[in-house]
Amino acid sequence: MLESVNAGTSEAQLAKLAQLVSLFERGPIAVLTGAGMSTDSGIPDYRGAGSPPRNPMNIAQFTEDPHYRRRFWAGARIGQNRMNTVEPNDGHRALARLEAAGRIEGVITQNVDGLHRRGGSRTVVELHGGGGVMRCIQCGERWTRSEVLGWFDTLNPGYAERNAGAEVAPDGDALVTEVDSVRVPLCPGCGGTLRPDVVYFGETVPVAVFDAAAELVSRSTALLVVGSSLAVNTGMRLVHKTERLGNPLAVINRGPTAIDARPSLAVRIDGGTTETLTALADALGA
Ligand SMILES: [Zn+2]
User: Fold this and answer.
1) Residue set of the binding site
2) What is the pLDDT of residues 24-68, one digit of tens each?
3) CATH no. for residue 74?
4) In a 3-state reduction of DSSP, which class is residue 28?
5) Residues 120, 109 share a domain
6) Number of Cβ within a 10 Å radius of residue 138
7) What residues are labeled active site?
């Protein structure tokens, strides 16, 4: 914490903040956010420096392996209480302030935590969907996660109480051991398999969603990348789109990113998203 405060107030950082502010002179810009945006809300960024390695959920395993699905729903149910305590941070609120002041066109996010909308942003493109929504693989119908977890409780009476002590990882995934007897909630319409309505590793962003993001970039005069190392391909496609338009890029991120050496990068701030975005909104009078 002390390190970030010092970095945020050093002369070099202030000069960079001034450079970032000047980027807004040509008109509203687009913002692309990644996991680093939500670390101050208590959701760990597994790609950040010093983070433990992690296997992203495998959707093929999810759809083909009944044991994997039982484990998923059990973990989701026990982890629910922790996820319910996650709140937007001042960085999310700073972006909402900038949008309300007409300084940004909107937010494109790689996160599935729904915190931008809850933080007050109105124009939000969720590239990877929303973790709070479940979708039937067969008929496409959607429900909220809490609705489906209610069905889980009906199918598995006493389960949540018996396993309340299970260890919950910071991202809400619970390490449950009682798995074999779990009854998995199914689509009430067609009996199909329900899955999170998110784009998993190895899946592609729906065309309409990418088009909405690209359109937002087209309306903007620059692209500001926040809390992402741009390891995700879709983010790089938006970077290329920005460059084709002849617009500059900017980065706020702790640690290196995939675009650090690009000539189109106008300013790069190596710092925390919460304090930098708050300082930016203050500087722009948002
Ligand atoms: Zn269905």
Assistant:
1) 136, 139, 187, 190
2) 999 999 999 999 999 999 887 665 544 444 455 678 888 888 998
3) 3.30.1600
4) coil
5) yes
6) 14
7) 128
